[in-house]
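Expect chain and fold; thus:
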Amino acid sequence: MTDQLTDKRATRQVQAADQLVYGSVALIPFTLLAAWIADNNVLILGGAAVLFAAVSFWGARLRSVAGCIYVGMGLIGQAICITAALSGHAWQIDSHMLFFALLAVCIYLSEPVVILAMAGMIALHHLGLSVLMPQLAYPSSDILVNLERTALHGVIVVIEAAVLWSALRRQIAAEEDVAKIGAQALASADEARTALANTETAQARVRTALREAEDAKTTAETARKEAETETEKARAADRHARELEQVERARKAKDEAEITMVVSALGAALHHLSQGRLTSKINETFPAKYEDLCRDFNLASEALQAAMILVKDRAGTIISDVFAIEQAADNLARRTEAQAATLEETTAAISQISEHSRTTSVNAQEASRAGGDAKEKAAVSERVVQNAIGKMHKIEESSGEISKIVRLIEDIAFQTNLLALNAGVEAARAGEAGRGFSVVASEVRALALRSSEAAKEIADLIATSRDQVTDGVRLVRETGAALDGIVAAVEEISGHVTVIDSSSKEQSLGIAESSEAMKHLEGVTQQNAAMFEETNSVTQSLAQQAQHLATAIGSFEIGSSDDTPAHRRTPPASGSKATKAEVAMPVVGNTALALEAPQADPAISDWENF
């Protein structure tokens, strides 16, 4: 990440150096015009301006820090030529404003050393000419007056250079901090995706274990259909992972665009004090060459909205996991009812009790092992939920780092306000000629105040987001408690399966005891049915908790409904009699049973596909 930041900074320096070379060349006609107006030697002054432009061109070709210094020297040299060209003219003293403006332009090179070097060059020029050739710098020939002016201008240059140097250093530090935060956010996102994948894998294993217990008593066709269903779910999970990866890439691109916008807007504000804008929204009409800066700045404020939408999408994934668990509980209840029907028909077929008892004993042992595996996998799911809570805390810490950057923007706005005040004082000293520049300085102060207010609003939004993340952690913990209930239910199922195994072994002792053993087995089956009714109640409670979670996520809506997952329908509570339909079960032996099976809810299917 540091190498990428260095490469981007070097690229900006190369682009800025090329553009400043064009600016240096563009100032040559002004030198010629000033020499002609003041009736000075046009040829000599024009040659000096061309020489300084050549220095800028040569420095731009070096592609280094030294080259940036040469580019700045060529630019300041144009101000020296224009001031000398106005020698003897009333505007000569006003031309010194060009030194301050071009010094601010040098920040465009993104190199603090250039600011210090150019400030030294300006100070050396003023001091040297005040003593050796005062007519090339000031209209007065009194060396004492010239030295006083040099001291005043030197103080202003030092203040401006210090502010520009400090702002540029803070800008570079902010870029490095943002780069580090971006790297940490990406790492956290990768860990979150890994945790989500582990959760889905664990849930798939739990569902597989439950199906194995039931598949011991179903046909091969049922096993094939369930395998196809699991394959489709795996494909949906893969699509979900790819969508999350695309969202992360989009967020990274938006963060980089926001950083670039802040740096460009700050450079423009210091480059042209009368044009700089630091508010969250720019509604005024800019000249054509500033339209791109206006659009980029507005897009940056929308990037924070996109970040909040991303947090809301993450909460949606938690809801989808809850409803997947609810569906698994409903499937368990239906399969328990099917098991009871199978045991009734086993009672009718008592003539084949011996062979069926041995088969039931083997299947019960496998079901017991599957129940143990289901318990372990449910425990793994609980640990994954705890990891998800940790990742959400890391997201909250990243929000705190963003708050620090917002405070940095407020500090920059404050320093810009100070610079505008300094420019206003200088304009007031210039008298009538500086009136226009005074108006510009007032506008810059107003813009700095608006920027500070916008930064405070962003800080409030981040604080609200942090509170919502805390609510999300609480809801995930409630989900973990529901998983503990599922583990207890699986343990009870395992115990009942053990009883079935014991009954099956007793039946194998002889046909004479088969009738009494089947009665005992029927009683155990009835107990299982009652136990699974309790399990169904637990799953309904889990569905209600999922709906509470969906309601809480709905409060996170930011922006239009098309940009957020809040417009998706919240599934109704599972297990309600109003949402069930009669489904005929397969006929076995001489008995045909019709059991109630929940009808597939479209909203639940949508969440599973997501």
In short: Residues 256 and 507 are 73 Å apart (CA to CA). Strands lie at 580-584, 594-598. The radius of gyration is 38 Å.
